[in-house]
């Protein structure tokens, strides 16, 4: 092992042939793409045949760490699942914190790349440079919690870490996530279904090989200093330390962008029952950190009495409170804790599942589905009893509505017909996170241009639009915010920092150098970000995506919000088109939103030009 | 009076910074499984964390019972530490410790227990939640 943060090894798994092998990490690519999102995208672009069905054995499923993972660099010990999304058909990178990422690294691998399909349900056990494909018969059909418990016992390592799927992934739900450490999920885009399609229940990791850096003594001094000064005492983190993301509920209510009753309102009269104070007063147990994190934004919550007594979860986080709370008309945090626990247990993404249930409630109230479809569940907004049963209906594909929603909201609507598609709030089939663009016009662009479909972790203009002093409805500068943040997030996710570390580019560069021994500065990181975002875009264009897919739902234009600061507001089409055109220009892409030869060459991606038909 | 670390474990969030800095300063690499501080999260209920470390108890049965006499007194600190060169890896100390304060390294060739970093424990310094005290 070189003392540069990397293990230098990639584990290859072919489930069809029941073979594993180890190969050296492509060091040239590592220098250009770092790890996580970037390096995962580079391997995927190279190895995935265009047009591959994401749920076929030919899809490539990879799990990535990065050089910083497993070191004392705070808030970076995460992992990325990188594959082609079965929900959107786009490039997919989805992340989780917890403890699995560093454990995989300690077991001797920077990444695991999985191809093929196992003949029977299997899991992968990785331990100190060795890998074994094992029979998963004892855990197939089991939920994600039970699976962790049984697999720890089976491999005889109490401290093994597990990333796996519940019934949702097994049953190929396109909104199934990958669950690790019980409550940490690589949730978005349906990565869990890719596991399921390969008959892969889980990856179990235990490692004691460690990670080395060039100058350990200096490194430890630096890391201790930074942990105190840049994490613990950083004023940007104060709200996360005391409250965590639930603090955003009140902010969104005030800005009138809190998704309510399937996005028919931006304000929820029951918000006081689901906000950060409700969480702290009613269900909070203790704070919980991920590996190497000095913030501990996570809250262990447990329901003390009532119908959901005993339910517990880590969170719920803001997106869950929005999509699975106000957007379903749910007024009590206890019900959301139960819903969130069910989603984790069954392996569902809470954003997509919450959005799907809100949509189902909307069309149920409109009479477009009936009790026949819901197996007599009274699916009105706010009905906690029906609502908390929905994760199981979806994950196990029970009843017609459960089976439909397991496909994700958009595909469900297309199958239901009756013009229900116009009620789905999504971009590229990925359900909107909990910020209504009608009170933050920049988010319409952020969602439309996100590489994995609608998303809040690629650009977040809502910070200035709705929570800061920006003008939420002016198009000015919004394309620039998306462009700039997409670059920054691209390199930030290539080092797999947590979104909540308010780390400066200078410090990110400093950490990178301290771990790898290689020079870095903000300019270089920007060049990595530009390269990675263009690569993900090129991947999507190769899959047939272009301007026609960078859209917002028609409702954004035609349905004004009813109250508060967003009363009577929409996102006018001409505003959206203007931002999009400006955005393509900033990236140097053509009018159809496709990276030009020049843009790719400047991004250092000359070598992929020959693999893009539209440039021939 | 125990001379070891004190921990307010109810404040611990399980981040393992203590285990990271411990392995870094003793082994020159980041490897919590070889750390002298063991952090165990008790999933899924109730989200609590267990810390294992040598409390440097007055009775020090580990040193008393060690057949190789490899657990030696650091006179300046008045605590017992494992001399890895002399430890035979028999595991007697692990067996007799009433506090689960020592354990075998992953290769099972010697036992691991806190040595207070020669007087300035790194983990106390690094803990972001102020859980550990000397």
Concise structural overview:
The complex is a heterodimer of chains A (616) and B (134). Chain A is an alpha+beta fold and 616 residues long.
Explain what the structure shows.
The complex is a heterodimer of chains A (616) and B (134). Chain A is α+β, with helices and mostly antiparallel strands and 616 residues long. Chain A folds into three domains: 9-206, Aldehyde Ferredoxin Oxidoreductase,  A, domain 1 (4-Layer Sandwich); 239-424, Aldehyde Ferredoxin Oxidoreductase Protein, subunit A, domain 2; 438-501 and 521-615, Aldehyde Ferredoxin Oxidoreductase Protein, subunit A, domain 3. Chain A is built from 25 helices and 17 strands. In chain A, strand 1 and strand 2 form a beta hairpin. Chain B is α+β, with helices and mostly antiparallel strands and 134 residues long. Chain B has helices at residues 17-27, 61-65, 92-96, 122-126, and strands spanning 6-7, 38-42, 48-52, 71-74, 79-82, 103-104, 111-112, 132-133. In chain B, strands 1-8 form a two-stranded antiparallel sheet. In chain B, strands 2-3 form a two-stranded antiparallel ribbon. A two-stranded antiparallel sheet of chain B has the order 4-5. The A-B interface holds A 70-72, 74, 99, 102, 106, 128, 145, 148, 158-159, 181-183, 207-213, 216, 219-220, 223-224, 227-228, 231-232, 285-296, 300, 302, 312, 314 and B 10, 13-17, 20-21, 23-25, 27-34, 40-41, 43-48, 106, 122, 125-126, 128-129.
